[in-house]
Amino acid sequence: MKIEHLHSLFLECNSVCTDTRKIKKDDMFFALKGDNFNGNTYAEQALNKGAKYVIIDEKQYKTSTQAIVVNNVLETLQELATFHRRHLNIPIIALTGSNGKTTTKELINAVLSQQYNTTATVGNLNNHIGVPLTLLSMDLNTEMGIVEMGANHLKEIEFLCQIAKPDFGYITNFGKAHLEGFGSVEGVITGKSEMYDYLIAHHKTIFVNGNDAIQLKKTNDAKRFVFGNDALADITIDFIEAQPFVACKYNNANINSKLIGDYNFGNIAAAIAIGSYFKVADDAIKNAVENYIPTNNRSQIIKKGTSNIILDAYNANPTSMQAALLNFEKQTGRKIAILGDMFELGNDTEKEHQNITDLAVSINMNPVILVGENFYQSESDSNKIFRFKTFENFKSEFDFAQLKNATLLIKGSRGMALERVLDLI
């Protein structure tokens, strides 16, 4: 079936679905395959649950004229998303980076939605499946799309750009993330910069944090819009403070966010800059930033009993862990850090966990609780370090009364699920 015909059938449907547990009436179901499942086997179930069409790639599961057989379901999903993106012909803003992608995406969406009907990536659906699903969630009411792109190896951002064909792009930063796949920080810079390569090749606009020397250098010959307090900046945004919430100054107005940590200044500044570029009124930008409240275990401030908690347990890598600890150092009163293993670091795993252990020891907090096999193997003779090989060991062996009357930082990679600590306090 030609993609034009499939797109006409897609327009008859309410939405796209890849999980029969979430099927709604008149959805188009794509029977994706994984290591432990074959979506083709669920095609008939999807129809029984109300799907209008099912897209399959194994003929034996065609039990109805509503089942459409293609060569490869995943490739068809991606091709349909690109066709639909061209059909809508709206501005698409893409963003990637080692840290802060999702928070920045949500801030940009909050600002732009003050004036435009936007559709943005939901959660972190930012891979070769999530990006097509994001594009296919846009409809004729969408005036602007915001697409988050994640990557853990080279050529992935290049591929996602070929699917989404962005008109604008922003890279939050380059850090020590997914070193196992990228090989080194230099590999991270090369991989993330594939977005720059695409935008430059197609004469599109890049948003650049003027306080980031790497971004400035990489986009020196590009069509770009620079923000920050650098002399090259098209607009000036000044950092004020983070005690604990980040505040900044833009066009003579102070903007007071509900985000903690100096590291969130760049995320906020990007949203302000992009709003300014698209002519969102200053008061609307201020309103959007000041009313944005982080969720989903990202820099959340939680009060529980006598403990004040900074819950940043959605993910972690050496760069974000270091930034979180240095920010935490500025907190007053009794401070306790609960840190979980960082994943996908490859050959740098031992070194980076030791670096974070050493940094944690050097900061005025007591105790420092390290959870996970990698932290368990780090070395320190400090009596304020408590190590637990697993979360279950931590849960059963630690005296949680020690967490009372303190400010806690909880941070670790997603697989550690350290938000479970909340149930133990």
UniProtKB/TrEMBL annotation:
Gene Ontology molecular function terms on file: ATP binding; UDP-N-acetylmuramoyl-tripeptide-D-alanyl-D-alanine ligase activity
Domain Mur ligase C-terminal: start-end pairs: 298-380
Pfam family, any one: Mur_ligase
Cellular component aspect of the GO annotation: cytoplasm
Record's subcellular location: Cytoplasm
Top-rank taxon, per record: Bacteria
Catalytic activity: D-alanyl-D-alanine + UDP-N-acetyl-alpha-D-muramoyl-L-alanyl-gamma-D-glutamyl-meso-2,6-diaminopimelate + ATP = UDP-N-acetyl-alpha-D-muramoyl-L-alanyl-gamma-D-glutamyl-meso-2,6-diaminopimeloyl-D-alanyl-D-alanine + ADP + phosphate + H(+)
Binding site for ATP: 97-103
Residue stretches making up the Mur ligase N-terminal catalytic domain: 15-87
Broad class of where this protein is predominantly found: cytoplasm
Claim: Ligase is one of the keywords in the record: yes
EC identifiers of the protein: 6.3.2.10
InterPro entries: Mur-like_cat_sf, Mur_ligase_C, Mur_ligase_C_dom_sf, Mur_ligase_cen, Mur_ligase_N, MurCDEF_CellWall_CoF430Synth, MurE/MurF_N, UDP-N-AcMur_synth
Function: Involved in cell wall formation. Catalyzes the final step in the synthesis of UDP-N-acetylmuramoyl-pentapeptide, the precursor of murein.
Family from the record: Belongs to the MurCDEF family. MurF subfamily.
PANTHER family xref list: UDP-N-ACETYLMURAMOYL-TRIPEPTIDE--D-ALANYL-D-ALANINE LIGASE
HAMAP family named among the record's database cross-references: MurF
Entry protein name: UDP-N-acetylmuramoyl-tripeptide--D-alanyl-D-alanine ligase
